Prior knowledge:
Helix content: 40-55%
Order of helices and strands: EHEHEHHHHEHEHHHHH
Bound molecules: ligand 1
Radius of gyration: 20 Å
Number of domains: 2
Strand content: 5-15%
Strand order of the largest sheet: 1-2-3
Structural class: mainly alpha
Number of helices: 12
CATH architecture of the largest domain: 3-Layer(aba) Sandwich
Number of strands: 5
CATH class of the largest domain: Alpha Beta
Distance between the termini: 43 Å
Amino acid sequence: MSITTAMPTASPSTFVSSSLPATRTIFSGIKPTGRLTLGNYYGALRRFVDVQNEARCVFSIVNLHALTVEHDPERLRRLTCEVATLFLAAGLDPRACIIVRQSDVPAHTELAYLLESTVYVGELTRMIQYKEKGRGRPMTRASLLTYPALMAADILLYGSTEVPVGDDQTQHLELTRNLAMRFNRTYGEVFVVPELSRAVVAARVRDLATPTTKMSKDAPEESMGTIRLLDPPDVVRRKVMRAVTDAGREVRYDVERQPGVANLLDILAACRGGTDPAGLAGGYSSYGALKREVADAVVAVVAPLQERYAELAADPGYVEETLRLGAERARAMAAPTLAAAKAAIGL
Ligand code: TYM
């Protein structure tokens, strides 16, 4: 397989809000800390594929972010490659968008430092992620605290207008916007202030075993609540059939009182490309019937993706070439913003 260097020109937007510049630029990233889940797919990856021909797009395997918690270097390299391969298997086309490994573009860390010099410690310690994973523990890595400055750098470097993410990233996006505005106000207009782009359905896929929490790739490998994109179909079926539902019997879409059932309906709607999980509820007389359909629907999504994954994994040179090309393009795209930020701040 080979990749041509032709990049499409950005086409006019179909859903741009009036505050956005005429050219849409989309950035998003996934952290290679675990094997990707259905949550990563519907909150992020699937949506990257949907927009790749509508705007200038940069999608990144944000491996520097994976250093914020205890990690094994070999596993990190392996997961970085797995996530890059999944980007392609899901349908990202390196001719249409930039696929980049974050550590290949030094501008990310350079701009992160300038933003660390813009953000307040009080803002960083308020971040939910820091509170949950690090606060009060002396062995917490300093990079977990400064993580949002690096994330803001990721986004602002490319002049991003939109950032498609799942609901759990809302707080980080809000901080990114605040930092961009503060920097612009203090040092001059350098950054585009980006908008969060939220999934219409399944913006927060919940854990099948504990439907009050989000499905996370960082869950233990053996977790029955986490559907991984590379889980074999029989494992997917087993996980769905064992999903925790609720005490009642009726299939209703009630996120507060029946989070397990609502989650299954969200997943079903997402798998079918629909937008109305509540509207699906009436079609099922039992939880068992619903689960069988969900299992079929998820398998129908992951099976072809896994086939493409196997083909790509057999050709690691293609994935490496994609990343090499992505790094080249991303470096060129990031350079002017970094230069402008350095000049504005007095360097
Ligand atoms: P990460 O790696 O935890 O997740 C990657 C993307 O998947 C979404 N997501 C979900 N969406 C719906 N339901 C879920 N259960 C679910 N779990 C995860 C996340 O919202 C995210 O969109 N900080 C980011 C990575 C990052 C980034 C960035 C994202 C670093 N720099 C710049 C956007 C822009 C993170 O940890 O995502």
